[in-house]
Amino acid sequence: MPGQGHEVTFSVGLLEKLAGLRKKEAPKPSAPRMPIQLPSRPPVSPDAARLVAQDVALSRQLQATREVAGLLVKQEAAEVARMRGMAEALLREHSVTPKPLPCQGEGQSCWACFRDHPAEAWRCEGLARAYQDCATSAFSASRA
Fold first, then answer.
1. Residue 76 Cα distances to 12, 40, 62, 73, angstroms
2. Please, which pLDDT band fits residue 68 given cuts at 50, 70 and 90?
3. Where are the annotated segments for Disordered (predicted)?
4. Rounded to whole angstroms, what are the CA distances from 48 to 40, 51, 53, 56?
């Protein structure tokens, strides 16, 4: 729809597919893992125990993020070059040469006359009228 932006989401699976990597299947644990042992002394704050338990999960997420970042960096140069090429092609295909503004000569001569005769504006009446007529006809032609 016009006026609405588009959103692109890069997932780990998409990046792995673009890089030609196969997704590693997680090894099945043979034995249940031991729970995380909290320190024997009481934590400094009530949130400290929760933070220690989250540390392992955050470390795994950080490692996954680093892997995704590596895939993005590898693909970035090729994608930038490809996108620039596509943008140039679109600009060539849909580019329109701008039309020159109408009445440029009349407007410049009128402005120069008023600049040269600031105290005698009546001398520029003919040039101002020619500029007005040109602008009116250009406007009328654009509406037809």
1. 15, 48, 21, 5
2. confident
3. 22-46
4. 13, 5, 9, 14
**What are the tens digits of pLDDT across the range 94-139?**
877 778 889 999 999 999 999 999 999 899 999 999 999 999 999 9
Q: What mean pLDDT is reported for the chain?
A: 80
Query: pTM for this structure?
Result: 0.35
Query: 116-139 burial, b if ≥16 CB within 10 A, otherwise e?
Result: eeeeeeeebeebbebbeebeeeee
